[in-house]
Amino acid sequence: MNVDIHPSWKPHLQSQFEKSYFQNLVEFVKSEYTKHTCYPKGGDIFNAFNHSSFDNTKVVIIGQDPYHGPNQANGLCFSVHDGITHPPSLINIFKELMTDINMPYPKSGNLMPWANQGVLLLNATLTVRAHQAGSHQGKGWETFTDAVIKTISAQKENVVFLLWGGFAKKKAKLIDSSKHHILTSGHPSPLSANRGYWFGNKHFSKTNRFLESIKKTPINWTIK
């Protein structure tokens, strides 16, 4: 596994790459990708960082695990490659966008346009074995991504963190709420959304109102 990551992140994360847990993680991932089909493809593992540089990151969305079906995962949480059927959680994200900002339902499920505007779409675990959800959890990825969240919290200010569901909400303890803006809600998965914990959270318009209040460019959430 090559740690192919945007240069802007390296000064902040280099110390993690040198730690023994990360070296062990690299060996584990290399072995998994050699022996099994894993997602996303190797070159996409650090996509979240390569499309949202450290300096440009102003919103963080935290997911849990990459999609584990063929050709779905592209290295950005909740996002799929162009032409791939939208998973249920992504459908509900788009439904909320339709009511929150009047966005037409999009053809593509690729959230790259968000990432390119400074939305870090960070899964807690960056790889997964095909058809085995959670198969790469507890191998070191969470230590790394927790360090990423702590680094953003410590080194930046006025970042909007969108914490959706119980797993993501637990990450709030890593974030200095006195200098960042945290929004929480239920998860967009059907189980949570259909119980009324997701729809109507208006996180997308709330994010933009906050960014505008601190004189930052709002996110164009529209996907086509």
Provide a descriptive summary of the structure in words.
The mean pLDDT is 97. It contains nine helices and six strands. It has 224 residues and is α/β, with parallel strands linked by helices. Strand 5, helix 7 and strand 6 (181-185) form a beta-alpha-beta unit. The strands form two sheets. Strands 3-2-5-6 form a four-stranded parallel beta sheet. A two-stranded antiparallel ribbon has the order 1-4. This is Uracil-DNA glycosylase.
Q: Sketch the major β-sheet.
A: 4 strands, parallel
Order of helices and strands: HHEHEHHEEHEHEHH
> Looking at the chains present, what oligomeric state does this protein adopt?
single chain
| Weakly predicted, low-confidence segments | none
Shape: globular
- The total count of strands amounts to 6
Outline the fold blueprint.
Layout: H1 10-17, H2 20-35, E1 38-39, H3 47-51, E2 59-63, H4 88-101, H5 112-115, E3 119-123, E4 128-129, H6 141-155, E5 160-164, H7 165-169, E6 181-185, H8 190-193, H9 203-213
Parallel strand pairs: 2-3, 2-5, 5-6
Antiparallel strand pairs: 1-4
